[in-house]
Design a protein that fits this description.
Three copies of one chain form a homotrimer.
Chain A (H helix, E strand, L loop, with lengths): L2 H7 L9 H47 L5 H27 L7 E3 L3 E4 L25 H22 L6 H23 L4 H4 L9 H19 L20 H21 L7 H33 L4 H16 L7 H24 L8 H19 L5 H28 L7 H6 L1 H6 L11
Antiparallel strand pairs in A: 1-2
């Protein structure tokens, strides 16, 4: 007999006649709880492999948008950052993010600030109802698997912005700090039940702020400290276009990210074991999809109007910005609202990409417009569809997270720059990182140099 | 207490002693219904993201089979058509396709012809048993998500056939009409319970006719009105081979489509909440897979015999034709029958591709043989394995759908041709659509022109 | 009333008063069994499409690692081998592998050696509790679908090692023998309940030995009989590097394989219908992921240390070796142990690749280090985390399987070499198999030859 049936059956043995029915009821309720546990865990497993898939999406998107001489480096960085992020998250991040009340600094009631220390531990093999960590939630293994992917996604965002001139190892050091400290600490403030959640009532369903803007702030700090690619901005302030070397790959990456986002947002419902939960997940899937469509179409129409020619890279980033924008609240909007929230994301991208260039902030793949700007927009847009959101809660949380992540990232980048150096030599940059840093071309037979 | 338990408990309160057991039975039955609802909705969510993935598959297949000078356009068209199709389907298509008895023209009994007008509306957030639209089916959100992907797939079929010479915006206008009117109206005739279903007993499990041949007919009409690519057919009637620029991409696209088809056919079971349903879905998965294998192998062997060399693009299209062929009835065949049905699809493709060229119908990727011809074959093949199918029902439905879709498509293409024009200039075609229409090369560093 | 409820209700009709509750209990238990059946079948369906996806992963990995002149052939071989393997497995392999006690040679008790003959047969359409093959397991269709993918994966392993010089048709003959006889016979020894399982207590959860080393042994035999690629090993014993033509494709292939491995290992739990099973699957997902991360990071660090430059292809193979290594026991290790088991896989690859070259065994993609060496390591590593494993059981089984597969494969390759020939001419090899064997270039516009 499990812990659960013990609780249920205690105190209900009112009469001998009722006993069989009551015991039966207890068994039936226990089965229902187990079924819900399975559905919830399954949601995390499916959601997790979909968000894992986003790692491939970021990799393909970035490999397609850099010049061919830097592709092997971009591939290497993505493989390495994902692997490193995952292991660091296991060692430090998971318990820092989910202290389950055991805050090192703060408390659930007064506001949590810094979570717990320790490696992630899953349930024992062949767990029963009395050995799973939380019978009314899901298996810890599935939760860990799912959450790990979010930490890795945050790091992936940074990689694209800083492409084509950053050194591999300093970048990986930053990834370790980002996924071991910066990301989980700020994530604990909301998703670990910390002060943004308990004191400010901040709402961020799947991470427009907690994941995407965090990656965006870290990328922005890095882009500023690192400086633009050699030759990117002419003397007269003119932007020299650097063309992505493989647009099918970038498009594939976008489709992969779009697909993975169903897991990203849908899994963030955190439960699938009830009729209400699965119906909500269904809303989330449909809204996530339509926001991406809205973002893509908005960028298509807007680039046609502004430049007389549709711009594929803007359309791809428009779809992604739509996805980022809906991530803070994929549940409450109607399909129409979700489409508009996504469309605004696409519009933001089309205007923000040239704006960053004007500021000489060189973001190779458009990660800052997509993940930071559309992330802020999405977080504010919660106000339009979810009555529980407050202007103060949303705005203040965006600022607190932004200041924290940008400041810490900036300091880390500056320290790395001052110590090991973060940038390859100009010659290396001109020749390409693939040959100078790795000695391996991505397309040895294709390029017509 | 939910609506369902109310119904169950009414009239069964026969005795006071029996009451606890009966109340318990009602609760247990309610739980079972909820569990089935969750499974059914989950089927649509998984099926939906798999069919979504087919959009990436079409995109990669087409991008790999066109020449490099037209790749960016093909990518742009696919991103745009998917997004547009989805939003149009939300605005118009979904209710037109599923009137749930509220026909504008016709009725469930006498035969439905034109469905209902209105945007798609999902259940409320946190729906309960009394607020879901159909407790014995699945969440409307999941159903909408799944069905939207089918509408988009129909449009994707058209895009490949007309590649390398069609203008972007007129193409998108056609997509809007196809996914907003043509597709949902004819789909309502069968899947909305309309006259093909109720009067003719037409059987088309997952859409060999309703989806694939519809895309194929629309593509055929477009290919005829649009004309062949410049230089494709020599003066002497000889076909000038235009080589696909990236066969790994085309192969990847085929694998993606194959994977997505498990959702396409499996999800079309429409339920997973019973032992019988999941066993049927298992049959469908295995049959879908083996039909693709049969189609690929048949094309491999046949091209070896006919041309002394296996032809990869035929093998890819053979696998896809196998998938299209099994789509009308993936459930009833045995594994052996399914393999043969798929193999015949592969054989059809090998013979139909040169036949179309003889007719100077220029189908860039082989979409018409794969989706139209194999779709017709698959629809007729239902007769071999499903005793409920009638020759009249299948044949007449193929003809009715074909005439409707081809005629309307032809008129729309002609009107577009006469008004805005549908074809780029010959110079643009020779230079490539990427530079002339979009100003962006797909592989700026690779091509040795 | 189903078979199950009959059993339950027989002999429990103790009293008239208890009857309603007991009938209710029987119904409730029946529902629970059905729910478990659905979950179990769903696990195979999801696991199956994920392992299917690995076919695309192998294809992309191999297409990326061969030179551009052999890419079309590599794509053709992968499409063909998957299709052929699946159909052969249906015709012969499935029942040979799972005799369900009906051994042609041997018995469950004394040890099974050769399974049963016959094509695979799924349950009837609309199966009920009394017509499914095993109510306490999963639908046969889903099991067949899942297992078929493993047979195909085994064949995929061989294809990469022998690339760039083997003829298509002899290769496919070998694939037929491998997937129709070699693979299912040795797999029956463990997974069909044969003598390795019943007599030796061999443990191999998802196939480090049964799948991966089998592919590896077959590849090794083939590589020896076939000989190295022309020009690969210089007169002075120096290895001439042949560069992969498309590293983004190889990286994509690795990500695809990694994703598919969640199905490969997770699905091998064979059940998801209980709280314990889903918790175990969660462990497996997390461990599988972290082993890949460990393998990738180990290869990254080690190549940096050894060669002063990280080597992307080693990192990719390191991740894959980590996955192979954890496959024999993805359940019992902790996250830390799984990371180390995977890391050791990555280390093995970094040392084994040059070792094979020293032996002039030319393995184009590193399949032998990844699948054979890391497979052996993973099979032995079970001893560290699973107390049920015995040194004798593991070691002897590795040897028995290795001797059987290598010897039979070697003979088959020799016979093929002596009869139809297995190698293209040297001219063909220099020109490339794409033009000489298939007449179709993979990238007709890119290569700068």
């Amino acid at each position: 007999m499990t812990k659960f049936t013990k609780i249920i059956t205690t105190g209900v043995m009112a009469s001998a006649i009722a006993a069989p029915a009551l015991a039966q009821e207890a068994a039936s309720q226990e089965a229902a709880v187990h079924t819900q546990f399975i559905f919830n865990s399954l949601l995390f497993l499916i959601g997790g492999f979909l968000v894992f898939w986003m790692a491939a999406g970021f990799t393909m998107l970035e490999a397609g948008l850099v010049r061919s001489k830097n592709v092997t480096m971009q591939l290497t960085k993505n493989m390495a950052l994902f692997s490193l992020a995952g292991i660091i998250y296991y060692l430090v991040g998971y318990n820092l993010m989910y202290p389950l009340g055991n805050w090192m600094i703060g408390s659930d009631e007064a506001g949590g600030y810094i979570g717990a220390i320790g490696v992630a531990v899953m349930e024992v093999v062949g767990a029963g109802a009395d050995t799973v960590d939380d019978l009314n939630y899901a298996s810890t293994g599935s939760d860990f698997f799912f959450q790990l992917m979010f930490a890795a996604a945050t790091a992936s965002i940074v990689s694209g912005a800083l492409a084509e001139r950053i050194k591999l190892w300093p970048f990986l050091i930053f990834v370790a700090i980002l996924t071991g400290l910066i990301y989980p600490i700020q994530a604990s403030w909301k998703w670990g039940g910390g002060f943004l959640d308990s004191q400010l009532g901040f709402l961020d369903f799947a991470g427009s702020t907690v994941v995407h803007s965090v990656g965006g702030w870290a990328a922005l700090a890095g882009a500023i400290v690192l400086g633009a690619r050699s030759g990117r901005y002419g003397k007269n302030g003119k932007v020299v276009p650097f063309h992505g070397s493989n647009l099918p790959l970038a498009t594939l990456g976008t489709f992969i990210l779009w697909m993975g986002w169903f897991g990203f947002n849908g899994g963030s419902q955190l439960a699938m074991g009830t009729l209400g939960d699965v119906t909500d997940i269904s809303r989330i899937f449909a809204n996530t999809n339509t926001a991406a469509m809205g973002g893509a179409l908005a960028a298509l129409v807007l680039t046609q109007l502004l430049y007389k020619k549709p711009d594929l890279t803007m359309i791809l980033n428009g779809a992604l910005a739509g996805l980022v924008a809906i991530t803070a609240e994929p549940l409450t909007p109607t399909l129409g609202q979700a489409t508009l929230i996504g469309a605004m994301g696409g519009i933001i991208v089309v205007f923000a990409v040239p704006l960053l260039d004007k500021l000489k902030i060189d973001d190779v793949v458009g990660a800052i417009p997509v993940h930071l700007f559309a992330g802020i927009w999405g977080t504010m847009a919660v106000l339009f569809t979810n009555p529980d959101a407050t202007l103060k809660g949303q705005l203040l949380s965006i600022i607190i997270v932004g200041v924290f992540v940008f400041a810490v990232s900036y300091v880390v980048w500056m320290v790395l720059k001052a110590t090991v150096g973060i940038r390859v030599s100009e010659e290396a940059e001109i020749v390409g990182l693939d040959m100078t840093e790795l000695g391996m071309e991505a397309y040895p037979e294709f390029t017509n140099r």
